Structure formats: structure tokens, C-alpha cells
Amino acid sequence: MTNYLLAGGGTAGHVNPLLSLADAIMAEDAGNRVWALGTREGLEASLVPARGYQLLTVDRLPFPRKMSAYALSFPLRLVRAINQAKSYIRENHIDVVVGFGGYASAPAYLAAKSLGVPIVVHEANALPGWANKLGAKSAKAVGVTFKSTQIDGATFVGMPLRKEIEDITDGGDVESARIGFGLDPDTVTLLVTGGSLGAKRINETIDASRKVLSAAGIQVLHIMGGRSDLPEVREKDYIRIAYCDRMDLAILASDFAVSRAGSSTVSEFAAVGLPAVYVPYPVGNGEQMLNVADLVAAGGGVMVLDAEFTADYVAENLVPIISNSRLLKDMASKAKKAGVADGTERLLSLVKGVL
């Protein structure tokens, strides 16, 4: 029996791999015990208890970027969070701390280091966050999703995938998946998604390209995301919905995709062998461009800047790719070859290796 503390959260990119590892730990030995460490504000507050794991919390402490009253109080707040994490580690006799980044990870790493508890870090993005860079300095092992990630002690393990995605990495019933969305089972299918919140550029460009895509014989499953003002549509070759709770089936139903380049999306598409045009989020530190760099270099995807993803691009570049069955098959093969289907198993092996 081993006691694990899995730290991380804030976004689905941190929470989902945490939960995938938790499930693998318990599937291997029901005598193991798993706790998650997060904040009250992140997605972990709902997702972790819903999966049946106990969530322990520390205060949400963004790293201060400029001088302010908060910046002056940050050191004391961090000490309090570290002490809280120490108490959790002691009370639950934790044998190893595994961190995934996010606000809860830094206190967990510092607490574990001070108590002599081994640390394992998993970095989901090609551009490491500050918490994981901190944790890597004292970690016994560091797993990364992308080979190009620059972080101390990196071992390439890929992304721990959701079970429903793992289940389709070797194929599935494409016809039933398409019919389930109201699509024709025999027509080449384009999946469009900008993530749970949506992507304005992608949504508007695809909406403006509906006639071009239809004329090319391409049917579209368009998942808008929660913040789009576009109405839902159900037509013969164009289905547009606000939200999809079965992304595994959406991926299975599709031959090609247009998407942002979040680490989970890139990893899931590659593992299944779904080639895509990736439109990285244009705001922030540019991590999405780096997330897709390895896959694009391998030939399993194409990257286009947000400002360049226009109706003209769809007509002149996207449609010719999807209409070329030989190219589509080749890109799918290269995507799958570059992808990792057993990231959860690889990360679990890395963790067990420090015990």
C-alpha cells in the first residue's frame, strides 16, 4: 500500500492528467490511497470529488508580477500554504508527491522537500510553468508531455489520457459515432473545436466557410464552446453545438480537425491519429505554438497563426488537404506515430521508480 498526494489544478490541462494517474494508481492496487491537493477556486474543486477522491486545499497564490500590497504579503501567504501542505503530508503519511503544475503545486513541492518526501513532476506544456520549474530542481523524476520541453531532468512520457480517449486509440465504431451526432456515416468529416470556452476566430471563420466546405463534400461537426454568440445549427452536412460531453466520440467520428493547440487536445488528437490544422491561442506566452511544434515537424498536423486563419485559408489550404484522401491518410499515420497512447502507464512507472 502506498499513499499518494497529487498536486495541481486550476485548468483541465492540470486536473485531467492528475485524475488519469489517480485512476491508474487505484486500478493497480485497491489498497493504495490517493489525495489531491488543489484550491477552492480551480476546476479541481468540482472534478476531483466527482471522481471520488478527497480534495485537500491550500490558498490560491498567483506569483506576483509587480510590486503591490499582495506582493508584499506573498512570502507570508506562501509560508502558510507550505505549512498547510506539510500538515496534509504528515497526517496522511504520504509516501510521494506528484505535481502537475498550477497554484497548489509550489507549496506541495516545498513542503515535500522540507520533509524528505520524494517528488515527481509532470509538465503538460512545452513551455514549463514556474511552479514545475521550481519543483524540478528537487524532484526525483520529471515527466514531460513533449520531447522539446526544456526542464531539469526531463523524461518523455507523454500526456496521461482520459480513459475514454485511451479506449479509441486503437479505433472504434466510426459509423455509430457519426450517426450519433446526426452526421452521414459515409462522408468525410471535419471536427472544429476551440475548447470549452470556444475560439472566436475559429468559430467565425468556419461559419463564413460553410458553403465552401459543403461544396467540397465535407461535413462539419462544429463545437463552439461556451462563450460563442452563434446559434446552434443542425443541417445535413453541418452540425453546430455549444458543448459536447463526449469528445471521444467527436474525435472518433472525424477525419480531420481544426482546433486550438492546448496540450491535452494536441496529445489526444495525436494518440488517436487525428490530423489537424492547429490555430494557437494568440494571447499569452506562446506556449500553444510550442505545444504543437513536435507534431507539425512530424507531419501529423499543420499550424496557422490566428490572424491568418481566414475564409481564404479554408478555401485555399484546408479544403485541399481534407479532399486529398492519400494526404489525409498519410497525416493520420504520422500523427499517430508521433502520439503517445500509454502516457498514464509511463507516468505511473516513473512515479513507482522513486519509491
Describe this structure in words.
With 355 residues, the protein is an alpha/beta fold. The protein has two domains: 169 residues, Glycogen Phosphorylase B (Rossmann fold), CATH 3.40.50.2000; 174 residues, Glycogen Phosphorylase B (Rossmann fold), CATH 3.40.50. The protein is built from 16 helices and 14 strands. The strands form two sheets. It has a seven-stranded parallel β-sheet, with helices on both faces. A seven-stranded mixed β-sheet has the order 10-11-9-8-12-13-14. Helix 4 runs parallel beside helix 5. The longest helix has 23 residues. The protein is elongated. The N and C termini lie close together (11 Å).
Q: How would the blueprint of this fold be written?
A:
Layout (H helix, E strand, L loop, with lengths): L2 E5 L4 H17 L4 E6 L5 H7 L3 E4 L11 H23 L4 E4 L5 H11 L3 E5 L6 H7 L4 E4 L9 E3 L6 H4 L7 H7 L8 E5 L6 H9 L1 H6 L3 E5 L9 E3 L2 E4 L5 H6 L3 E4 L3 H10 L3 E3 L8 H5 L1 H6 L2 E3 L7 H13 L1 H14 L4 H10 L3
The CATH architecture assignment of the largest domain turns out to be 3-Layer(aba) Sandwich
- Give the strand content: 15-25%
Based on helices, strands and strand pairing, what is the structural class? alpha/beta
Quaternary status of these chains?
A: single chain
In CATH terms, the superfamily of the largest domain is: Glycogen Phosphorylase B
Rg (CA only): 21 Å
The largest pleated sheet is described as: 7 strands, parallel
CATH class placement of the largest domain: Alpha Beta
Give the % helix: 40-55%
- If you consult CATH, what is the topology of the largest domain? Rossmann fold
Poorly predicted spans: none
Q: On the 0-100 scale, what is the average pLDDT?
A: 94
